[in-house]
Amino acid sequence: MAFVLRRFVAVLPVVLGITLVAFLLIHAIPGDPAATILFGSNAGPEQIAQLRSQLGLDRPLLTQYLDFLGQLLHGDLGTSYLTSNSVAHELLSRAPSTLLLTGAAIAVAVGVGVPLGLAAGARPGSVVDQLARGVSFLGVAIPYFFLALVLVLLLSVRLDWLPAIDDGTPRGLILPAVSLGWGYAAILTRLVRGRIIEEYRSEYVRSARARGCSEWRVLLGHALRNSSIPAITTIGLQFGNILTGAAITEVIFGRAGLGSFLASSITSKNIPVVQGAVVLIGIAYVLINLVVDLLVGAVDPRTRLAGSAA
């Protein structure tokens, strides 16, 4: 319980930092933020002053930030300039699509990377190992957005097997998930392969074999368990990168998710939406890393003991 409480306390300053960065976005705009937002609408000085008052830009900076924190604590992310709808509603209505794509990409990464890494690490130098290293090399070398275009050209335009644009069906999720998750599958393949090779050289693996344990039990019951800790950590750390990649992937495949909505909001200078998206994605990233810390602590008790000693 003390381990969990320490982890919760440790994330509080990070969450506070996320809210500060999101709040300062509007003040990072060069010049007068109100004039910049109204640029191109032939707004006069009175309209600019009215918008400054509406945004609270005429108040002290600390007061603005405290008001911003108060709104966040009540679940209020502001109002969209374009639709006049709640930013929280706009973001949460699009979040399931992005989370579905992110989850599918992680499933591709784990489903391809872990078995391939296990097979390659258990038989180093074999044909499977050569194949795994080749797949890993290509996965790391090819950017996910380029892979997405190649997959669309081959599997959608040439062969007409899968839809090029999201149609709301499971088939429409395959290409985005594979193109986004393949690079992370390559990273996991390398990581698991290296760890399995290292674990196979350990004394406890030799002891397990000497006791007559089967090769599958040695691999899955001993080597994989100790290799899973860095893999779990890597998956958690890559979650933020997958969310970022989901933005571009959603644009390529025409998915109505957080990423494409955020991209259009940046173009239209819809600052409350950008601020809300930064807060929402940042907190999601922190929570995922918190879950990863707790999972690592559950898998490896040494982590909890090290934290207690510190």
Automatic annotation (TrEMBL):
Q: Which keywords appear in this protein's UniProt record, sorted alphabetically? A: Cell membrane, Membrane, Transmembrane, Transmembrane helix, Transport
Membrane topology term: Multi-pass membrane protein
- What's in the GO CC field? plasma membrane
One GO MF term on file is: dipeptide transmembrane transporter activity
Highest taxon above the source species = Bacteria
CDD domains, per database record: TM_PBP2
- For the keyword ATP-binding, the answer is no
Q: Where in the cell is it found?
A: Cell membrane
Predominant location of this chain?
membrane
Instruction: From the record, give the transmembrane residue ranges.
Output: 7-29, 99-122, 134-154, 174-192, 229-253, 273-296
Kindly give the Gene3D superfamilies that the UniProt entry links to this protein: MetI-like (1.10.3720.10)
Q: Does the keyword Cell membrane apply?
A: yes
Pfam families associated with the record: BPD_transp_1, BPD_transp_1_N
What InterPro entries does the entry give?
BPD_transp_1_N, MetI-like, MetI-like_sf
What sequence ranges are listed for the domain ABC transmembrane type-1?
95-296
Which family does the record claim for this protein? Belongs to the binding-protein-dependent transport system permease family.
Which PANTHER family does this one have? DIPEPTIDE TRANSPORT SYSTEM PERMEASE PROTEIN DPPB-RELATED
Q: What is the name attached to this protein's record?
A: Peptide/nickel transport system permease protein
Q: Which organism is it from?
A: Friedmanniella luteola
